[in-house]
Design brief:
The chain is an alpha+beta fold and 319 residues long. 22% of the residues lie in helices and 36% in strands.
């Protein structure tokens, strides 16, 4: 079996590994490959693995969770994949197909710290008309909530003050109530900050817990802001998360809204993997080519984001 080129990267600290191959090429050991690459005890470690076939104009990608099962993927992971392909092709945008979802990834300007950024478009948001800005007792006895698919189901509450214990309590309640919430939605609290175009968001992922950053939660929260008339859809809002900042807007296409998230697409290192090593019970040795400058630039951006949240009085557990 030929060696595999892989790249590790992240958006807002949500790290993924990108494998330059279609999964059919390694199907006899696909689950083992994904599990060992995502294993935090190994040399790589990631929240998901993306296999990529970049031979056509429209890139085809497949996402797998850390257990080796197929997963939907996220805008953060798609941004990293798009960055990898755009660098390779020398282009400014990449169209990518991931299952039934279509994404467009564009290069964005670097941040003042030198962080490489991309914008990721799609897919269309879909509101649940019977749950828009209303109190649902099974969710919370007094907080209003809006339900939206991005396309993952999300429940979003806009709060005046962020309380992490409250988010965890609501998230656990939703995860445990399979009758009221059969679609397994995540829960996001969005807190507007003093700046008119800034907010803080954190998501409790269904059955898992609070996340470092959730692209689906950010997209859903941004869509809810416009659905409730707080800000126009095409206005860019800086959404700060514990993992880092994201600029979020909505592209208006006829009567549809397409989330557009501008986030970092930091490539931390490249490596070449011999798949035969996976059959060995011992540790996997990789010759890593680290992108030190990109790692340091993002560390500076994340520190600035944390200082801004501290100054705004937002308290959360360190991711």
């Amino acid at each position: 079996m030929p060696q595999l080129n892989l790249t590790k990267g992240h958006g807002c600290g949500v790290d993924v590994v990108v494998i330059d191959a279609a999964p059919a090429g390694v199907e006899d050991r696909l689950e083992l490959l994904v599990r060992r690459l995502c294993d935090r005890r190994g040399p790589v470690g990631a929240e998901a693995a993306y296999f990529v076939d970049g031979s056509a104009d429209e890139v085809v990608a497949w996402c797998f969770g850390p257990g080796g099962a197929p997963a939907r993927g996220s805008a953060y992971g798609v941004g990293v994949v798009g960055r990898v392909l755009a660098d390779r092709r020398g282009t400014d945008h990449v169209v990518l197909r991931l299952g039934d979802d279509r994404f467009v990834v564009h290069r964005s300007d670097d941040s003042p710290e030198g962080v490489r950024r991309v914008s990721v478009e799609g897919p269309v948001v879909d509101f649940w008309p019977d749950v828009v800005g209303r109190v649902v007792p099974q969710f919370h006895e007094r907080r209003s909530v809006t339900a939206v698919g991005v396309p993952e189901p999300q429940l979003v509450s806009i709060v005046g003050r962020y309380d992490e214990d409250e988010l965890i309590d609501v998230g656990r309640r939703v995860s445990a109530d399979h009758d009221s919430f059969p679609d397994q939605p995540d829960v996001t609290f969005l807190m507007p900050l003093d700046e008119g175009d800034e907010a803080f968001a954190r998501t409790y992922e269904y059955g898992i817990g609070v996340s470092r950053s959730s692209s689906a939660g950010v997209a859903a929260a941004r869509a809810v802001c416009s659905r409730l008339g707080i800000v126009g859809p095409e206005t860019s809002v800086l959404v700060r998360t514990p993992g880092g900042p994201v600029r979020a807007a909505l592209k208006v296409d006829s009567e549809s809204w397409i989330p557009v998230l501008e986030t970092n697409a930091t490539l931390t290192y490249h490596a070449v993997l011999d798949p035969e090593l996976l059959a060995s019970p011992g540790p996997i040795a990789l010759d890593l080519q680290a992108n030190v400058e990109e790692v340091m630039a993002y560390a500076a951006l994340r520190s600035a984001n944390a200082r801004a949240l501290e100054a705004a009085g937002v308290r959360y557990a360190a991711p």
